[in-house]
Specification:
The chain has six helices and nine strands. It has 190 residues and is α/β, with parallel strands linked by helices. The protein has a nine-stranded mixed beta sheet with strand order 7-1-2-6-3-5-4-8-9. The longest helix has 12 residues. The mean pLDDT is 93.
């Protein structure tokens, strides 16, 4: 199925819901994701409850550009940053040391945070309209298969979400690769 450009009103509506503390679903590179404002503790608590996910696991933040991630992470040495920035936008999630001000509902039990600058046009446009990075986790109940369609999202979550951005997922069959920003080591193959 071919991905389409969104009428601006869909993106404005999704961004409005995020700014109001809502939890939304949106198509990503491989599956539908659930997202919320990473600075909103109540929204994050709702998102985790919907998934049945433990806050200690931590989450991934996605962004349309690196500047949206900078408030949450400590930058690495010049060579590591050069390697990481060369991989973005793209399907690689990098683990960075978290700033001390980064909320624990994002980092979980870790002192680090998983972040990605997405090449997916829907994810990038959503972050641009929102004006910030957003939480990105697969649209599923923990331990179950993630939704790949709007119908799948509705089937799993009913009316519990504040908005579902319509559309189709990208062509990736696997989730993003995850790498350690300090070493470059692959933690999850993509």
């Amino acid at each position: 199925m071919e991905r389409v450009s969104y009428p601006t009103w869909h993106l404005r509506r999704a961004a409005r819901e995020l700014k109001a503390g809502g939890v939304i679903a949106y198509p990503t590179e491989a599956v539908f994701g659930l997202g919320c404002d990473p600075q909103n503790a109540h929204a994050m608590s709702r998102l985790l409850a919907l998934k049945g996910r433990d806050v200690l696991q931590g989450v991934i933040l996605v962004a349309s550009d690196f500047s949206q991630l900078q408030p949450f992470i400590e930058e690495l040495d010049v060579q590591r940053m050069s390697d990481i920035l060369a991989s973005w936008p793209g399907p690689i999630t990098w683990i960075f040391p978290a700033r001390s001000s980064t909320p624990t509902w994002l980092t979980g039990r870790y002192d680090s945070l998983a972040v990605r600058v997405s090449a997916d046009p829907t994810v990038a446009a959503l972050c641009q309209h929102f004006g910030n990075a957003l939480v990105s986790t697969s649209a599923n109940i923990s331990g179950r298969q993630p939704a790949r369609t709007v119908f799948g999202v509705r089937h799993r979550f009913g009316n519990a979400l504040d908005y579902i951005l319509p559309g189709v997922v990208g062509g990736r069959r696997k989730p993003s690769e995850i790498r350690d920003g300090l070493t470059g080591r692959v933690l999850r193959a993509g």
